[in-house]
UniProtKB/TrEMBL annotation:
<dbReference type="Pfam" id="PF20067">
    <property type="entry name" value="SSL_N"/>
</dbReference>
<dbReference type="InterPro" id="IPR011042">
    <property type="entry name" value="6-blade_b-propeller_TolB-like"/>
</dbReference>
<protein>
    <recommendedName>
        <fullName>Strictosidine synthase conserved region domain-containing protein</fullName>
    </recommendedName>
</protein>
<comment type="similarity">
    <text>Belongs to the strictosidine synthase family.</text>
</comment>
<dbReference type="Pfam" id="PF03088">
    <property type="entry name" value="Str_synth"/>
</dbReference>
<dbReference type="GO" id="GO:0016787">
    <property type="term" value="F:hydrolase activity"/>
</dbReference>
<dbReference type="GO" id="GO:0005773">
    <property type="term" value="C:vacuole"/>
</dbReference>
<dbReference type="GO" id="GO:0012505">
    <property type="term" value="C:endomembrane system"/>
</dbReference>
<keyword id="KW-0926">Vacuole</keyword>
<feature type="domain" description="Strictosidine synthase conserved region">
    <location>
        <begin position="151"/>
        <end position="234"/>
    </location>
</feature>
<dbReference type="InterPro" id="IPR018119">
    <property type="entry name" value="Strictosidine_synth_cons-reg"/>
</dbReference>
<keyword id="KW-0325">Glycoprotein</keyword>
Amino acid sequence: MALITFSRIVIVCVVAVALQLIFSSSPYPIYLENPPPSSLLPAPPSNSKLQDVIKLGEGLLKQPEDVAVDKNGVLYTVTRDGSVQRLHRNGTWENWWQTHSPSLLGITTTAAGDLIVCDANQGLLKVSEEGVKVISSHVDSAKIRFADDVIESSDGTLYFSDASSKFGFDSWTLDLLETEPNGRLLKYDPSTNTTSLVLHSLAFANGVALSANQDYLVVCETWKYRCLKYWLEGDKKGETEIFVDRLPARPDNINLAPDGSFWIALLESTPVWPRFVYKLAAFKYLARAFPKMFSNWVIKIVDKSMVVNVGSDGKIIRGFDDPTGKVMKFVTSAVEFEGHLYFGSLYNDFVGKLPLPLSST
């Protein structure tokens, strides 16, 4: 009799847990939907200008995520096969270092002549003639899970984004299942070799850029179609406000232009999972158990690309696109140097180069 009673209790508990997993509800993150058109921030007209890019290193580069150019005009990029490549002024490519890491993302050059690389899995890397070294892998004794983009300030401080403090590079799509933003903005101080928190609760923190006067910093929130401004100096020091909102697509990397404006690479995408999925906790548990299986079901990347030039006032000045993805797809970064734009991409096998100035029509 006792055994029968115990069995009934176990069955009731199992059923109760199953019902909780299946029917427990969480709010749908409305920011996954494309925002309605904004009369205050109209998208630039399509012009197919990105189909005119010059292809640098075609066939040598596997999905070059980001691009950086040092003061001597040497161009750097990192690729999905773990290599750190650089293009010298004479037009020759050099496979500078091989990290064997598949998770190299944002990069920046430093005043000292080094290259800083965000390795989503390892943290911040310093790449120099001496080799590759991890300089930041933890914050508050916790491992950095998703180092994404980085920029150096004039005092040597490195500001970088941690796209998700909960999900790593191999399970980034699961961040879309969360109803609470998990991204952060971090700061690395080379004088003390310490990393600290600047901002938290960001919806997939991505590109990071400093203003021309370095009085504020801009960080992109990819899932929310916007970029935030964090004040570093002045009366608003330590305050955060929206820099640009309701962009025509999801912002990836952002870079300062020579004239003080910013170039933002935009990702065209649409959510694939229907809203009811967010009411099925059981589905979330299943997706977390098999992230690679469900990764292609989370979001669909549209075969097109777009970059916009945004002024220091947060208004779009101009933009260039490839509306069909005929030449450029999935552009993740745009860097201006000596009258040209250079593009990184997680789809193409080359770095794109486009001469400026150009009109957006």
